[in-house]
Amino acid sequence: MAAVEGEQRPAPARKGQWRLLLALFVAALVLVFSYLALFSNSSGAVVPSCPSSAGRVSTGRRARQDGTSYIQLPGMTFNAKSQYLLRGVLLYIEMNDVKSMKWKGFVIVVLGKCNLFSGEWVCNPSGPAYNNVTCNVIDAPQNCMKNGRPETEYLYWRWKPYDCDLPAFDPFKFMNSMKDKSWAFIGDSIFRNHIQSVLCLLSKVEEPVEVYHDKPYKSRTWHFANSNLTLANIWAPFLVKSEANVDDEGRSKSEIQLHLDTLDPKWTDQYDKYDYILFSGGQWFLKTMVMWENNTAVGCHNCQNKNLKELGFEYAYRKALSTTYDFMISSSHKPMIIFRTWTPDHFEYGEWFSGGICNRTIPYYEGQYGGKSVDHDMIRIEVDEFDKAAVVAAEKGARLSLLNTFHLSLLRPDGHPGPFRTFHPFEKDKHAKVQNDCLHWCLPGPIDTWNELIMKMLVDSGDISFSAS
């Protein structure tokens, strides 16, 4: 009987095999769902944890351990007053990437200096801080995910300065430090793009409420009730007074009349309301225009009027910036003033109105693309005018800072809406010819990095504390 009983024992073995198979099946399901949870975007499309780096090369530079910025001035007390007096010198050091220079008999040595604007784009497997579902203030033309942009690699990069780390934007610390404060973003549609990035990041803490908009929705204001923080986007593409007849696509129906010695009252009339001013010029200065000074037409850019001198867009831009700086620096109101540099476009095979496209999916590596000649013309004017303004600002106690987003933006041809500025543009015809936007930025996208730079600047200036909670 014992032998017979032994021959009848295979059943428990088969039961154990089924348990093993079931365990393996459950484990496989866990792995699949974990993969989907980690590497899926809001639309459910699976994306890699890191974009492919094919075609990109590392610059080979290493970050120093100490990224703290400070200066050593033998024989001179370094305090708030001397900091203002040295601002122009420090700007020169930063823009020219030097470590020391002589100034008024003093040798200025910059130790552990970190240039936030010199670096490279590196992989960011965590992805963006928000998406088109969690943020409801994204304008349709920049809502690339909702509009059906198929690849998502552009979402998985972060800016890494060579000599230090750039902390992620912390909306909680920002809101806590900005209680009862107000911000104005003065300029063109790039600032509309930018302020929506800020709103999306801050909406993780509190939903903003729109409290004002003009009739065409170009100037808008939002308020955060709990912190009493106000963010305003003021439409003033030229900064100075202008008469422009432009359609919704940005086409000028006639020559723009630009008054270079008179500022746009849309922002000057409310300048005293704001604690922080962020401003810039932009692509509007490339349009055909007639320039006025002292109520007299003094010249033009790209116009057909034979009686007017061709002064070029450079003249107009330089004068507009100079007039703006004069007003801000001489004002008795002393907000923190931040100038943001020129934003390059990435049109290829044409421009906005001539069939230009942008279909790249990864950033440029250092040295791969240097920009267009107009980019360098405009950034040179901006740096020149800022340098001059910084010296005067130091003498008059104005707080003036430079947000140099040009280079890091130049390296991101993949961050624009391209053809996905409209909802699913190829749904009916995959070969359809559509308008590309290679100037504004997808949200989320590279423009979110601008807020990380601003926050780091505010931390360095003492306006935001890392201990804020």
TrEMBL record:
UniProt GO MF annotations: xylan O-acetyltransferase activity
Main location: Golgi
Keywords: Golgi apparatus, Membrane, Signal-anchor, Transmembrane, Transmembrane helix
Chain ranges of the Trichome birefringence-like C-terminal domain: 166-457
Annotated localization: Golgi apparatus membrane
Occurrences of domain Trichome birefringence-like N-terminal (ranges): 113-165
InterPro entries xrefs: TBL, TBL_C, TBL_N
A GO cellular component entry from the record: Golgi membrane
Record's bilayer topology term: Single-pass type II membrane protein
Stated family: Belongs to the PC-esterase family. TBL subfamily.
Record protein name field: Uncharacterized protein
Native organism: Apostasia shenzhenica
